[in-house]
Amino acid sequence: MSFIAAGAFTLVAVASLLYSVAIYLYRAQAIRQRKAVQYHDSWGPSVLCGCVFIAILLNGWFELKERRIV
Question: Which of 17, 20, 55, 67 could hold 8 in an S-S bridge, CB 3.0 to 4.6 Å?
């Protein structure tokens, strides 16, 4: 079960990296082309925080289950 929690953290880390690179490339291109785009992103960080929260809950659940507390 530890591997499932580790996999969840790995997926969240990869998603975070991909999101960061995509946003960086988008913003860098917009700056180079002097486009007036909206640089504020209200959904991306919230979704990533939610994914990290779910991964932490999974990790806690598996740890409590392994210790036979739940």
Answer: 55
Examine the pLDDT at 23 and tell me if it is beyond 80. Answer: yes
The answer to whether 59 touches 5, Cβ cutoff 8 Å, is yes
Distance, in Å, from the CA atom of 4 to the CA atom of 65, rounded to the nearest integer, reads: 13
pLDDT at 11 over 80: yes
> What tokens does 47 get?
């979704």
Kind and range of the H or E run holding 29: helix 2-32
Average pLDDT score over the chain: 89
Report the alpha-carbon distance of residue 22 to residue 44 in Å, rounded.
11
pTM of the model: 0.74
Q: Rounded to the nearest 5°, which phi and psi values hold at 39?
A: -90, -10
